């Protein structure tokens, strides 16, 4: 397991991912009256999109540190 400053960023990213996914599920299911199966699919899609965004941000941040 990673220790140090990177572990805090990982925990924060996972927390954001889970909170947004759960919020999207609740919004889709309760407010938009979708079936729970559809709401889960939408929430997973949003979480996947966030993982892509986090990956791009991480690549941009690490590019400056590598000097390439």
Task: Write a structural description.
By secondary structure, this protein is an all-alpha fold. The chain has one domain. 85% of the residues lie in helices and 0% in strands. The protein contains 2 helices and no strands. The chain has helices spanning 5-31, 36-66. α1 packs antiparallel against α2. The relative contact order is 0.11. The mean pLDDT is 89.
Give descriptors for this structure.
85% helix; 68 residues; elongated
Which SSEs are present, and which pair or pack?
Elements lengths: L4 H27 L4 H31 L2
Helix pairs in contact: 1-2
In DSSP terms (H or I, runs of 4 or more residues), the helix count works out at: 2
Strand proportion, as a percent range, falls in under 5%
Shape: elongated
Low-confidence stretches: none
Largest sheet: none
Rg computed from alpha carbons, rounded to a whole number of angstroms: 15 Å
Helix content: over 70%
Task: Tally the structural domains.
Answer: 1
Number of strands: 0
**Global structural class:** mainly alpha
Order of helices and strands: HH
Q: Average pLDDT value?
A: 89
Distance between the termini: 27 Å
């Amino acid at each position: 397991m990673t220790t140090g400053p990177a572990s805090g960023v990982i925990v924060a990213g996972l927390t954001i991912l889970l909170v947004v996914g759960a919020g999207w599920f609740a919004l889709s299911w309760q407010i938009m009256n979708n079936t729970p199966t559809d709401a889960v699919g939408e929430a997973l899609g949003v979480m996947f999109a966030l993982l892509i965004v986090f990956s791009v941000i991480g690549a941009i941040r690490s590019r400056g540190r590598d000097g390439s």
